[in-house]
Amino acid sequence: MTNNSEILAVNDAFYRAFEKKDIEAMGAVWSQGTGSLCVHPGWDILRGWKAISTSWQKIFKNTPYIEINTEIITVEIRDHLAYIVLVENVMQVINGRKIEARSLATNIFEFLGGKWYLIHHHASPIMR
Description:
Elements: H1 4-20, H2 23-29, E1 37-39, E2 46-47, H3 48-61, E3 65-78, E4 81-94, E5 97-112, E6 115-125
Parallel strand pairs: 1-6
Antiparallel strand pairs: 1-2, 3-4, 4-5, 5-6
Helix pairs in contact: 1-2
Protein name: DUF4440 domain-containing protein
Domain SnoaL-like: 7-126
Pfam family, one: SnoaL_3
């Protein structure tokens, strides 16, 4: 039986890959299937690992420095699916300027072949 710590570890691996701008580590976390979905703040929906991977590569290329801290709101596990709802606290340095933003995110994971994979990431900006 899966416990919250397993899901939280995969979620943490996702955010560490994001911070390190490591596409290989990102690919190890994401399901490579065509059913994976990703919605970055302000972007259209991306379907399938190919489109999702391309988006991460573009983000990594255009983001010199990024830090992400998360505030977990809830973790739920149901059979072969799990989800985390959280707040992303993002700090970036772009063109020498420090930019801070907060997003509300949902990450959905599926248990495939004995391992949890991210199959859905949706982040929306929190407007103040």
